[in-house]
Amino acid sequence: MLYFNRLPYTFVTAEVAEATCACLVAQAEEAERTRQQEMMEEQMILQEFGRCLMQVIQSATSTKG
User: Fold this and answer.
1) Cα separation, 59 vs 29, whole angstroms
2) Among 3, 11, 14, 22, which residue has the least CB neighbours within 10 Å?
3) What is the DSSP string of 18-59?
4) CA-to-CA distance for 55 and 17, rounded, in angstroms?
5) DSSP letter (8 states) at residue 13
6) In this predicted structure, what is the pLDDT of residue 6?
7) Which three-class secondary structure state does DSSP give residue 15?
8) Contact status, residue 16 vs residue 56, Cβ threshold 8 Å
């Protein structure tokens, strides 16, 4: 089991949230530009959110106190 000296929510700063939103908007624009079906647009955006979340998690697990 992993123990952190910092609480997980401390990694989701205003800057991280802003960057994540920018990535999601860019993905939505790309889906719209390529005229994806609505279901595919949703999938693309959710996958991008998952990618961003994984980066936060990886950062949290590699950061020491």
Assistant:
1) 27
2) 3
3) HHHHHHHHHHHHHHHHTT--HHHHHHHHHHHHHHHHHHHHHH
4) 12
5) -
6) 67
7) helix
8) yes
Cα–Cα distance, 40 to 44 (Å, whole number)? 6
Residue 41, Ramachandran bin (φ over 0: left; ψ between -120 and 50: alpha; else beta) = alpha
Residue that has been written with the tokens 């990618």 in this structure: 51
If one counts every other C-beta atom within 10 angstroms of the C-beta of residue 12, the result is 13
Which residue type is seen at 6? Answer: R
Residues composing the chain: 65
Single-letter amino acid code for the residue at 51: R
Four-residue CA torsion sign, 15, 59, 5, 64: negative
Across 5-12, average pLDDT: 73
